[in-house]
């Protein structure tokens, strides 16, 4: 079977979705599909070869369609974003895919692509619901990352039988390492102290500010590390929150993340309860990395997170409440045996959430 994975995303990107796309193409191909990844051309930003940048097996091809790249020059310009997106979609409109299955991660692709065999992967509900609903109607199959998203799509009129729930995943081989706490010295963090770690971006619904504020309420000598922001996001967050016992560290190469995670004492998933993308729809890649690390997890008590974690695999706190988070972190650090038992159960559960298993489930649903 031929599969064209089409996305608006320029590659490579430091955003997690770029890695997820490449991993899915890798595992679709490993399962026997003839895969071509179709993305826009790029003239600015990261110049690395995507296969090398993400550490992906070169078992599929990448085709780039012409598009402007104004956003690469005018960061955060809404007009640039619109023009870049439109030029790619117009280039896509000229392509004929015949019997090739089109796998789209963006609903705009499902609107423009000339194909009657479209699978649409959905990660959130956009504001333009009527266009989104039209894209859903064009798709023969819909893949969502959470049960909350499935319920939302059914409420919009999508037939339940068309929808597959396939949460995000992890590459367990990345965690087949012997971690070293000495890596923390490079960032000024004392490896002899307890390390509480968050990885990911720092914007709104990710909840990073809740952990940063919780640091002030923590008793003892725990060091709180927030890792992963870029550019203005990083500079602004560091200016506001970095201080005694709070370390704000920028984006790190993906290959280094497992060592950081596995050498921490507590991993925090502090998603906000305010937007639906966080409370109901998300399936965070970091969640699956956390589970693979065998380190205790403290997580926001949200329906989206409870689809994966349970009382047996995580410690919960009330979302957006820094004091509740601080108390739960202290509890985990004070109850090492209980914490390690939950971490071990999470590590056992993660075996169900590999990229290969996800690819296989989607392939089966397409037949």
From TrEMBL:
InterPro entries attached to this UniProt entry: Glyco_trans_1
Alphabetically ordered keywords of this record: Transferase
GO MF annotations, alphabetized: glycosyltransferase activity
Domain called Glycosyl transferase family: residue spans: 185-342
Pfam families per the UniProt record, alphabetical: Glycos_transf_1 (PF00534)
Name of the featured protein: Glycosyl transferase group 1
